[in-house]
Amino acid sequence: MSRSTPTLDGALGMTYHHTTVPKAKIAITIAAATVARVDRLVAQKAFRSRSEAIQAAVDEKLARLDRTRLAAECGKLVRSEEKGLAEEGIGAEGDEWPES
């Protein structure tokens, strides 16, 4: 039996989308209950596929970690020192600084 090449209309259960972002295929092991939740979202058309749902979840988690890390780094700043540095920089160009 010969297999035909999947087309853009989703033949053989596959859909191809043009993307400029390189993708990597990986295998993961996750809890069966999580897979069932993802499958429900796919069935409800919240996502086109398991891959899209998992990609969105990973992207969201990474973005949240980035924001948390930025907030933690900002928390290390000493406000008076940062203000002094800013004013020092403004001092050199103070005549060009806009008034509020």
Q: How widely separated are the two ends?
A: 76 Å
What's the pLDDT, averaged over the residues? Answer: 78
N-to-C SSE series? HHH
Instruction: Name the helicity range.
Output: 40-55%
What do you see in this structure?
- By secondary structure, this protein is an all-alpha fold.
- It has a domain at 25-83.
- The chain has helices at residues 32-43, 50-75, 79-92.
- The radius of gyration is 25 Å and the shape is elongated.
Protein traits:
mainly alpha, elongated, 100 residues
In terms of topology, how is this protein built?
Elements (H helix, E strand, L loop, with lengths): L31 H12 L6 H26 L3 H14 L8
Give a brief rundown of this model.
With 100 residues, this protein is mainly α. It has helices at 32-43, 50-75, 79-92.
